[in-house]
Design goal:
With about 280 residues, this protein is of the alpha+beta class. It contains nine helices and eight strands. Helix 2 runs antiparallel to helix 3. The longest helix is centred in the N-terminal third of the chain and has 28 residues.
């Protein structure tokens, strides 16, 4: 029996028992890690699930095979050579395709964490606004209001500050108007509030308690005294960005008509030229 163990020990870097336990532990660890990663992938629905799962299985199986081979004395040097050569190759490929790899990693992060999905309206900190048409591992396609399609590398998407307009329960906007210093300020505030509240797309987000306490649905604030007139500002909410955009247009038109009827003047910059 001792001779058999001695012979078996000669095949491994450590003792036969230690090598067997190490391989068993490595097998269980890789199996558990594989199930965990696949579970995470399946949790987030996307069109590239099967590709990602295959890559996970292939990658972890390679790690398992190399880990088992490393336990054998005769195969240790071969594994070292493969790892060293693979490391150099990975470095060369990484430097040559750094941008492509960055886009793939960023694409996987977008697919996993889902900051947005196809059909969402998003805004970026560089002023881009559009609807998401497609999300791949390499890039994201956005359709703008001008009906153009923009293909953005995922690495750039991950660097940007994003606002997912669709994800919000409602869209907030500000209506900003000016009146002349000679106009009736109280009447102008009353007209603005009335026009906002009667618009069909305006959302009254007051709680029952706030309504019972008589808190107004719309608050019109005097925000500035400008060279040409008094600035008035009101916050309003709608179902979406597109609805809010249309509502602001409607309100500007209706309020302008009411101002004209009430004799309230919307000022504009004037230049006075003095002649000698």
């Amino acid at each position: 029996m001792q001779q058999i163990l001695t012979m078996l020990n000669s095949f491994f870097m450590t003792t036969f028992i230690d090598a067997l336990l190490t391989m068993l532990f490595l097998f269980l660890l890789i199996t558990l890690l594989k199930k965990l990663l696949i579970h995470i992938v399946l949790k987030y629905e996307n069109d590239n699930q099967q590709i990602i799962i295959k890559l996970i299985k292939i990658g972890l199986n390679i790690v398992l095979i190399l880990g088992i081979c490393y336990q054998f004395t005769a195969l240790k040097e071969i594994v070292k050579t493969l790892l060293t050569g693979g490391g150099v190759l990975a470095l060369v490929l990484g430097l040559a395709a750094q941008e492509a790899v960055g886009n793939l990693v960023s694409g996987m992060m977008i697919l996993f964490f889902k900051p947005f999905k196809v059909g969402d309206l998003i805004k970026t900190n560089n002023g881009l606004v559009g609807t998401v048409l497609d999300i791949s591992l390499r890039h994201t396609v956005i359709k703008t209001y001008e009906n153009t399609q923009i293909m953005i590398p995922n690495s750039e998407i991950n660097k940007a500050t994003l606002e997912n307009v669709t994800a919000a329960d409602f869209k907030g906007d500000f209506l900003i108007l000016q009146i002349s210093y000679e106009s009736d300020l109280d009447l102008a505030i009353s007209i603005i509030a009335e026009e906002i509240m009667k618009h069909p797309d305006f959302l009254d987000l007051r709680s029952a308690a706030e309504k019972a306490d008589g808190i107004p649905a719309v608050k019109v604030r005097c925000t500035n005294f400008l060279d040409s007139g008094i600035e008035l500002k009101a916050a309003l909410q709608s179902r979406s960005s597109a609805v809010g955009y249309a509502m602001l247009s409607d309100l500007r038109i209706s309020i302008k008509k009411r101002f004209d009827e009430a004799g309230i003047v919307i000022p504009y910059p004037q230049v006075v030229i003095h002649q000698n």
